[in-house]
Structures are given as C-alpha cells and as structure tokens.
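So, who can interpret the following?
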Amino acid sequence: MDINSDDLKTFITVIDSGTLSAASVHLGQTTSGVSRALSRLEDKLATSLLTRTTRRMELTEEGQLFLEKARAILGAMEEAEETIRIRRQKPAGRLCVDAASPFMLHCVVPHVAEFRSLYPDIRLELSSNDQIADLIEHRTDIAIRIGALTDSTLHARPLTSSPLHVLASPDYLARHGTPKTPEELARHSLLGFVQYELGNQWPLRHAAGNTLPVTPSISASSGETLRQLALAGQGIVCLADFMTRADIEAGRLVKVLEPDYTGYRQQIHAVYYRNTQLAQRISCFLEFLQRKL
C-alpha cells in the first residue's frame, strides 16, 4: 500500500464538496480523473470508502474511519509546514557553537548579549575545544576553526583572518632585554604550544627563511593560557591579534621584532559537514559573527 498526501486530499475534497464534479473544480482536474483517483485509493486500501449512486454518495463505515484519520494526517502535515515556515521567518531552536577558548572568550562571548536580543528564540550552547573535535560526536552545529583545515568532509566558510604578533610584557623586557633579531630569541624564555607544531612556527624573516621554528620553554595547549603566561612576564609569545589587541592597546603586551614580521595572517573559518542543510538559526549566527569580526 502506497498512499500519499494527494490521495488523502482528493478523498477529503470529494467528501467536503459533495459530488465528484464539484471536487474536480476545486482540484483542477476532470471529473473522470477524480473518479479514477478515488478508485485507486480504494484499491490500495482493498475496501470501499463510498457507496455511489447517480444521485448521491455516502461514506461506508470504513470510509468514515478513514476520513477521520485522513483529516488528522493532513492537519498534522499542515501544522508541521507552518511550524517550519515560522521558524524560517523567526530563527529558533538549539544552536551549538564550538570554538577554541581564546576565540570563544574574545570574539564570541562579548557579542552574545546583542545576538540574544536580536534572536531571543535561539538557545545558544557554547563549547570550547582547542583541538579539532568530531562535530557529530559533540552534537555541534558549527565550529570555528583557526588556521589550515585538513578534513575534507567539512564545508568551510571563511569568516575573517587575523595577523600574528610576537609579544612580551614590559616587565619581561625590562628584566631580560628586547631581542633585536629573530636569532636572539634563542636566548629568551619562549612560550609555545603543545600538540600544535604549527603554532611554534613563528612568521619571522631570518637568515634561513620566512618561518622561525621555536622550542618553547613553557608549552600549553591553549592560546589563552599562553596569553596569561605572557601577561605574567613569563616569556615571549606569538599569538593572534584578535586575542591580544586589547592588551597591546593598553600596554600590557608590547610587540617585538616588528620589522621582521612577514605579514602572515591566520585564516578563520566556520565549518560544518558538507551534507548539512543550513538552518536559518545557523545562517543568522554566521552572518552576525562575520559582521562583528
């Protein structure tokens, strides 16, 4: 049995119209076409729904039962369509966003209040993973990722890019001196990443090329941890502008080796699985965040 919504609509229209000819007008079909459709439905159900004479139609007992169910089914379908229509017009529902903790703290959290005022029916869930996480396993709608992407199953939407700065606190520089060349960094306490080797390749021109590999004196998995260490005067660090701009403006961190900086910018993407149909709540968040960045 393969009954579809058109079968149900035809049957209900015939009953509500009172005659096959009146139903054909409502459905934009011929009277014979409506009659055949009704007969096919009865064949699918292996029962008679109507007793038909030249003067009138009457529902059989089975027809009466089927009519009640058909109305309920079509009503539920219309309600579901209306719900989706409303959600498209006014984004709603759960939205889980994952980002490395520095980006979450410096680029997402400051704008949450404004986003919630614009989209009060979206329930935000914010999570922080400093390493690439399985989006499905973590029930994540979108993830913000910084740097090169390698997973081909993900669709990437560029959001912005951020320059890197080599930085130290004024206190550290007062105690240990300011390096004048990239080669002098070897004599300093350097702050770098663990399990993220690209983070220990600093974009500085030197005799051997445009990327300087460093060996950290202190390593951490999170850029925010490294920022706090730098603020505490524990060494020189290379971090993104989006998480250090306020520190630089306030003089808490000072740029070093600026003439040797290559101008490299880290790419920032929003990623989600390629087969994801972007819901309105996801699209509006990405558009909002891109404006803020």
About this structure: Residues 5-89 form a domain with the Arc Repressor Mutant, subunit A fold (CATH 1.10.10.10). The longest helix spans residues 61-89.
